[in-house]
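Handout, section 4.2: multi-component inputs.
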Amino acid sequence: MTANAAQAAVSAATEYVLEVSGVIKTFPGVKALDEVSFDVKPGEVHALVGENGAGKSTLMKVLAGNYKPDGGTIRHMGEPVRHNNPLEAKERGILLIHQELSLVSELSVAENIYLGSMPLKSFGRVDWRMLNEKTNRVLKDMHCSFRASDIVGSLSIAKQQMVEIARADAFHCNVVIFDEPTASLTDQEKEALFETIRKLKAQDVGIVYISHKMSEIFEITDRITVLRDGKTQGTMNTADTDADDITHRMIGRSLDSYFERAESEPGDELLRVEGLTITGLIDDISFDIRAGEVVGMYGLVGAGRSEVAETIFGIRKPDAGTIFWRGQPQQITSPKAAMKLGIGLVPEDRKGQGLVLGMGGRDNTTLPLVNELNVFGFMQRGRETALFDKYKKSLQIRTTGPKQPVVNLSGGNQQKFVIAKWLATEPKLLILDEPTRGIDVGSKSEIHKLIARLAEEGLAVLVISSEMPEIMGISQRILTMCEGRLTGDFSHSDVTENKLLNAASPQD
Amino acid sequence: MKSVNSIDKSMAQDAPTRKSVVCTQHERFLGGSLLHWVGRNSIWVILIVCLIGFSFGSPYFFTVFNLSNILVQSAFIGFLSIGMTLIMINGGIDLTVGSTLALCACLAIGLQQYGLVVAITGALGAGLLLGFLNGIIVVKTGVHSFIVTLGGLIGIRGLVFVYTGENSLSATNMSFMNFGMISIGPVSLIAILFLVFIAFAQWALSRTRHGREAYAIGGNRQAAENAGVKVSRHIVINFMVSGLMAAVAGITMSTQMGAATPNLGTNYELWTIIAVVLGGTKLQGGAGALWGTLGGVLTLGVLRNGMNLMHVQPFYVLVLLGVVLILALIVDKQFNNE
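Output:
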């Protein structure tokens, strides 16, 4: 190496904490990363955006030491690095905050922060005093309200995330990678997280921020790098660009519009609830939904929205109140009874409640219909396949065939199968609980269009969402909930962000 | 966690409280603390109830002689349950313990013609080696330990028959046979050995890095790997501990009987799993403690002994033990779901 080159490396070290150049990673049959390059300055928040499958997670895992790159270089503080495992990366100063938090819920906060490198005394004994002291110092730095000895499983998701972030302080990391950090946070928790990110910034930590949410990207980041099909599609200053430009680069074409609202005229009243109450959860809820209408339900996490949906669907039993279906009072005592009336519920947790992940798309689609589709216990494969083909086509689901396990599909396609499954039961009212959570922009837009089309065909749709732009973009009418009560009923033509936020925030 | 406190009282205050998540939330209510102690240590409550019940049921039950007898009888399942607890906290299972016990017992006696040292080292070495093989196959192939050790259970039992040719072996070394008879006061040396081992293992589980990482691997293996825990090495070590404990159980059993039969330890893996599960260790891993396992082991011993003394017919003993197991787990679930 010449003296010049060495000097260049040193000066680069002062300018960038992390430089990725020409990184290649190939998996059998796929080039996941194709000469990806980007860099992070100290004290900068650098957004990494792209659709699912664009290579973001592979890149992250290369940076965090889970994968080894097949080509290209990664420089940390100007020095080329090649970590063999996440611990090496963390000890060098590069930390990944996982979306599905990488914590052991049975262990304490201190043990989780220092897992894999706990301070020891002789004979492999853990030095508890030192461990807890070090941890409490870190937690104090970060103004955390929990203690080193608290068991992680007893903390809220937001606090658990703080435990992961605390590792950055504990290991003196100067590069922190956030993977979809706000996916399961409420708005207030999100604000607290952004406060923490700003603090890290002030300490000259370089931050890589991965998210699907445009509003967040424009709120918190300084620069944006777009990935598509494993290739970099340019890096821009956040201030010099806008959401349309980013989206355009991400999907390689313009989205006609982000959101699409159903243009149907609402028909007859389908569902009416009066005074629905479950002590401690929901309080005196009354509203109605008509055929062909898209009603949005907005509120903070924990406002009781899912509980209302679950009560209508017969999962929960109301303490008081009545549910009317086509004007007739109904006792909906089980999901089965709800389905019989023509109500479908797509739950929030599609992996846990909506899909059997190991099963193929066909069997998932026809799961609620096993009683109708069998003759003396034998499934009618032909009819099942016909249904599968129908919904695969109408919902544009990308899958290799009826038997491909849904676990191998992207979040967007999984969500479409959950919807297909409920459409197969031919419901009159479909309740969608956070239908686009964790889904990339392209699929999101497809699901929005699907909702509009279904409503135009006469289906009543109740959409629960925590994303304000989504709710405002697709609903004809918006209900707001706060602390278990219904606090507003707006028509889409006279609603504003402020009105919604006021109605959804606790007043005291 | 009494055993821990007595060993290292000062440290225990710094250590995080080791309870299920549910308990820590409820702990704030002081009034519920006794109930929660009961919930966490339900097996000890069951044990005490059994002790009281059998004391009324039979005049021969609550005697020093009988209680120390129970302790010796429990020690063999007890040794096996130490390794089993560690592996189950990892989220695995070891079904080979009964067969390994038999092989090591036969080796401890069969190798005596080459001297006692060779016999004992040979038996311990065989246990370690079999544990190592189990562990290495589990981590290298990724096949679930249930399947790997199910194969081991059959294969090792086969080895025992190959080695003994279906014959029972008798000990020739007098000092070997005397070892099993040694007792300090009323308590047999074998029982003391078991108590020392289990206390040490509990200490290691709650105080050492290896112990803490055991919970991490069982609780969230991906997180443990991400944090840099050497998961494979850890799992292999625990299988070796299990193999070693099976060897110790085999050797001590053969000293006590002065002989070894190829059918020794049949179904012991099942009794061991029952004892560990009764003690509150979760089959899916991430939670458990040897303090509870000790309670499970003793409860099994007391139930068998007590029912014998009350002249319950042997086959009914099995039926009742099965019922007790299921009832105990239902009670445990009720407590911990609240």
